[in-house]
Structures are given as C-alpha cells and as structure tokens.
Amino acid sequence: MTTTGLLLAAGAGRRMGRPKALVEGWLPRAVASLAGCDRVVVVLGAQAEAARPLVPVGVDVVVADDWSDGMGASLRAGLRHLAGSASRRCVVTLVDLPDVDARVVGRLLERPVDPSLLARAAYDGTPGHPVLLGRDHWAGVAAAAVGDQGAKAYLGTHEVALVECGDLATGTDQDTPDGLVEGPSGPS
After folding, report:
1. What is the pTM of this model?
2. What is the enclosing helix (H) or strand (E) of 40?
C-alpha cells in the first residue's frame, strides 16, 4: 500500500447551516474523488454518528473528538491514524469541494511515490486542495496544524510542487447554502 486518501469532513458547517458531511451526496462524491488511492480514511466530527452511515462501505472512519478546534484537529486525527499504516503518502482533501473529482486527485497521484514529496493542486496558479503529503512530513504537518489552518503554515515553509488542475476544476470550497450543489438526487 503506497497511498491513502484522507478526507476531512469533521466540521460543523456553521455557515452552511449543518455539517457539510451531511449535505446529500457530498461524502460519497468526495470518497469517489479518492478512487485512485489504495485506501480511504474519512475523518468525522460534528454529528459523527449521523454522518457515519453516509460513508461508503470499505472506507475507514476516524472521529476527531476535538473537531470544534478547527480543521487542524481533523487533520491531526487523520494523520495520527495513518501513522501506524504502511502508506508512504496521503492525499488530503475536503468534503466541501464539489467540483474536485478523481481526475484532479489522479493528476496529483502521477507524482512519484516519494515519502519526502509535498505537492498540491493549483487552480490557475493558485494553490488549493487536495494536497499530497509524503510520509516524512506527517509529523511536522500534524504539529503545525492548529485552528482552521490545517497544513497551511507547514506548507508555507517547505518546497511544495504545484500541480495545475485549473483545466479540470475550480477547486472552490462551498461554505454557504447559496447555490448549493448537492448529490445526484438534490439540487444542482
């Protein structure tokens, strides 16, 4: 096993009015975006028990008990879970990226399997998600992940390869219900 997909879906989604993990179709769609990974782990938090049945079969679930501390807490929980695995890298993505799909993740996965590599999707030159973290960086990323910053501070002090994906998606996260893009049976 070389690559684990790590989906962060723990937040309360206060601006959305509900946890984003509970938006119809978002969890399965985000898991599907990680189809090129050997394994997928979903980090839940707010209303974890309500969201757990929405996670596709065969996907591991980790609950970040301190989810209310921000995205950093869910990233730390996920990386702690992966520490005992055989994975050499992980692709970190967010549940609220409705147009990021397996093509975007696939482009990141074209990078060499190198535990010292850091790479991230870019959209018209602007860095975004998903982010590819080589195993050598997991402890440093976890230590730097505080509040809603996730890996931002760590990535800002390290060389990160940008992988242009603007031809595939916008990479824009959806924080409010305005123009909500839900799953196949919901509004679009």
Report:
1. 0.91
2. strand 39-44
Nearest residue to 127 via CA among 106, 157, 155, 146 = 155
Sequence letter at residue 44 = L
CB contact at 8 A, 31 and 56: yes
* pLDDT bucket at 23, cuts 50 / 70 / 90: confident
- For residue 182, count other CB atoms closer than 10 A to its CB: 15
d(CA 184, CA 40): 22
Give the strand pairing for 126-134 and 89-94.
antiparallel
d(CA 181, CA 98): 7
Radius of gyration of the chain from its Cα atoms, rounded to whole angstroms: 15
**pLDDT average, residue stretch 63-67:** 91
3-state helix, strand, coil in the chain (%, to 5): 30, 25, 45
Assigned token pair, 95: 């549940």
118, containing H or E segment: strand 118-123
Q: State the DSSP H helix or E strand holding residue 143, giving kind and residue range, or none if neither.
A: helix 138-144
CB 95 within 8 A of CB 20: yes
- Is the pLDDT at 140 greater than 70? The verdict is yes
What structural domains and CATH numbers belong to the chain?
3-164 (3.90.550.10)
